[in-house]
Structures are given as C-alpha cells and as structure tokens.
C-alpha cells in the first residue's frame, strides 16, 4: 500500500490522472450537449409537424370554402332560374354553357343540375361523349342528403400531377 501512496505523490502520475479527469469531463460535457441538441431537434420536428398539419388543414378548409360559393352562384344565376322555370332547349343550352364556365372558373371536376328525382338536367360536360345529361344519380350520398336537408351540394376536387 505504501508504494501506491507514493505513486500518487509522483508529479508524472498526477499529470496523467489530471489529463484523464479533464478528458472525462469533456466527454460528459459533449454527451450533454449532444443530448440537448437531439432534444431540441425532436421538439422542433414536432412543432414543425404540427405547423405543417395546421397548414394542411387550413389548405383543405380554404378549398372547401372556395367550392362552397359555387352552389350559391349556380342557384342564383339567371340562366339556371330561367331553365328551372321553363325547361326548354335554348334555356338548357345557356345553362349548360354557364355550368361549363363555372366548372372551369372554379376548377371543379364537373358542375351539374339535378331534378327532384336525381336526373341530370344540365351539365358542364354537355359536349363530351360521356355527358351526365340524362343520367340518374339519386343513389349518390349528396342527393340523398339533399333530399332530407333541402340543400344538395356535392364537391369533388381535381388533382393535377
């Protein structure tokens, strides 16, 4: 034991121990800094994730608000009101053109007018080979819900890739 005690008195040994203690302190310091940095990054990722989620929710809300105006515009349009009052070919044609204009302006996939039985009377795609005019959509959820509530709104968004 006496030799071990004498070893601690040696200046070279004390310098070596001091270097190891300093190295250990630095290692502990670096570990704490690393841990703090990782914690900060995780917290930042979580907050950005919430921010991006909020932005996505806001985007969808804006899109649905954008489309919610369209049925009101259609319901109050002069051509549509004339066609409902007097469903003749000329009023149907002007209603089809109006629905096509609304569809293009709103970027909706389609816009069409249904009668009380769910039959399409006028449609934005009236010129296409797969026109909805004459098709019966009484089975669709927006029509069924509209029969109950008195308001029939169906919204579909077109996605471009």
Quick take:
The chain has helices at 2-9, 11-76, 78-85, 89-106, 141-149; strands at residues 112-114, 120-123.
Chain-wise SSE layout:
Blueprint: H1 2-9, H2 11-76, H3 78-85, H4 89-106, E1 112-114, E2 120-123, H5 141-149
Antiparallel strand pairs: 1-2
Work out the radius of gyration. Answer: 36 Å
Widest sheet: strand ordering = 1-2
Corresponding CATH superfamily of the largest domain: PAS domain
Tell me the structural class. Answer: mainly alpha
Number of helices: 5
Task: Summarize the main sheet.
Answer: 2 strands, antiparallel
The separation of the N and C termini measures 80 Å
**How many structurally independent domains?**
2
H/E order of the elements? Answer: HHHHEEH
CATH architecture of the largest domain: 2-Layer Sandwich
Work out the helicity level: 55-70%
> Would you tell me the overall average pLDDT?
82
CATH fold title of the largest domain: Beta-Lactamase
Can you tell me the residue ranges where pLDDT is under 50 for at least 5 consecutive residues?
155-161
Strand content: under 5%
Overall geometry = rod-shaped
How many beta-strand runs?
2
> Mind telling me the CATH class of the largest domain?
Alpha Beta
Features:
single chain; 161 residues; mainly alpha; 2 domains; two-stranded antiparallel sheet; 2 strands; 4% strand; plasmid; transmembrane helix; membrane; transmembrane
């Amino acid at each position: 034991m006496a030799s071990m005690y004498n070893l601690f008195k040696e200046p070279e040994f004390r310098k070596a121990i001091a270097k190891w203690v300093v190295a250990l302190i630095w290692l502990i310091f670096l570990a704490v800094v690393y841990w703090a940095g990782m914690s900060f990054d995780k917290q930042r990722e979580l907050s950005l994730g919430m921010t991006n989620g909020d932005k996505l929710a806001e985007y969808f809300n804006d899109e649905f608000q954008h489309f919610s105006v369209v049925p009101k515009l259609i319901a109050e349009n002069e051509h549509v009101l004339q066609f409902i009052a007097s469903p003749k070919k000329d009023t149907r044609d002007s209603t089809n053109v109006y629905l096509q204009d609304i569809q293009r302006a709103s970027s909706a996939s389609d816009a069409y007018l249904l009668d009380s039985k769910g039959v399409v009377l006028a449609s934005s795609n009236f010129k296409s080979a797969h026109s909805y005019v004459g098709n019966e959509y009484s089975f669709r959820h927006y029509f069924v819900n509209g029969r109950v509530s008195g308001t029939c709104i169906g919204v579909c968004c077109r996605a471009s890739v």
